[in-house]
Amino acid sequence: MPQLNNSSQPDIRQLLAKNPFIAAPMDGYSDYPYREACRECGAGITYSEMIPAIALTFGAKDAKRRVKVYPNDSPFIVQIEGSKPDVMAKAAQMVQEAGVQIIDINAGCPSRRVTNGGAGAALLSDLLLMERILKAVKEAVTIPVTLKFRSGPSTGNFVIEEVAKMAEDSGIDALALHARTRSQGYRGSADWSHIAKLVECTKMPVIGNGDVLKGEDGLQMIKQTGCHGVMVGRGAIGNPWLFGELLAVWQGLPKPPRPTRAQWFAMVLAHFDGMAEYFDNDSELAARLFRKHLSRYTRGMKGAVSFRRQLAAVQNRSSLLSAINSILADEGITTDQTRENPLWDQPMPEHDSHGFVTPE
Asked: Do residues 121 and 206 both lie within one domain?
């Protein structure tokens, strides 16, 4: 993808036409090292983790870290959440000043930590407040503004058409729909017909989100709904190679083979090292935060279930290597044999993301 800056206004529709596959904003997951892994494997656009607008305006260290722009992470969208239009506008200005290319407003997170303050998916039940926020943010910045939302507060109480019209009237540049309701949380199945409904009732680019778990799902969502982009969340955690599969199927090419064990090991280690650097070379903090990723990277491997019970032992890079060696022993290999043992060239097992719940 071309390098962009916020003095060169990105055309979202054109970006999606080149590569429609997007790494979703997931709190606790979508930091820069994760985005880097996804982009290396084929993601076209990445999102930040959700950033509380109030935290950003108060200069919180974690909020400022999340908004940082990296040269090889482009196009990059920063997502902010909040319930006060003036605070959201101020945060949006700070995001633009940081050099970010596109801002996203969160109206979809069902977490009580967010909704109890009237933000996230709570806005689906207060469309007047949502409209004030959309207009305040749009008026505060010159870069494109997008909105990510859910189908409605609950089953049978959908607000897709109302939100689409409101967003269009407010000058929003694109819409992303997680095809579940607030009350569903992350349970049940995403209803892609809601995405098709949104495509029908707006001229804006539409990004579909929900249950994209294997290489064929992206093209299927595009064909079934007419959406312009496909957002991938839990399916890519521990499996960034999913983006390469999605891209190949969309391009009409054969799906790439699963990564070899050597490629898998290199990715896991690079991801961890990236996290250590991202968190100011704090290897212990990186190890604690990496455990949830490691749990996903090992899914489908022999001994993975018992291995996940031992993740608390991962405290630094050294213990990470010990943990990896313990699960690779069931595969007949160790990390000091990467060149000698032909088993390193064998493909990894298929990655199954069903039953895994995480914010997207």
From this structure: yes
CA distances from 31 to 25, 67, 293, 334 (A): 9, 10, 12, 29
Strands (E), 24-98: 45-47, 51-52, 76-81
Q: Is the peptide bond before 75 cis (omega within 30 degrees of 0)?
A: yes
Alpha-helical regions (H) of 192-253: 192-200, 217-225, 242-250
109: annotated active-site residue: yes
* Of residues 316, 323, 330, 279, the one with CA closest to residue 297: 323
What is the crossing angle of helices 192-200 and 217-225, to 10°? 40
Determine the pLDDT at residue 305: 82
Ranges of residues in the chain whose predicted pLDDT is under 50: 1-6, 360
> Is 292 in the same domain as 164?
no
pLDDT tens-digit map of 153-162:
988 899 999 9
CA neighbor of 23 nearest in space, from 35, 5, 41, 37: 35
Report the pLDDT value the prediction gives residue 4, as an integer from 0 to 100: 43
pLDDT (0 to 100) of residue 354 = 57
CA 176/CA 126 separation, integer angstroms: 19
Domain membership of residue 117 as a residue range: 12-250
pLDDT of 2 = 36
pLDDT tens digits, one per residue of 193-207: 999 999 999 999 999
CA 103 to chain CA mean position, Å? 14
Query: Considering only CA atoms, which of 148, 139, 143 is closest in space to residue 114?
Result: 148
Q: What is the pLDDT of residue 79?
A: 99
Same domain? 88 vs 160: yes
Q: Does 3 fall in a domain?
A: no
Question: How far is Cα 125 from Cα 221, in angstroms, rounded to an integer?
Answer: 27
Q: How far apart are CA 92 and CA 120, in angstroms?
A: 16
Nearest of 252, 230, 257, 220 to residue 241 by alpha carbon:
257
Single pTM value for the model:
0.93
Q: Which of 38, 41, 109, 227 is catalytic?
A: 109
User: Are residue 160 and residue 179 in the same domain, yes or no?
Assistant: yes
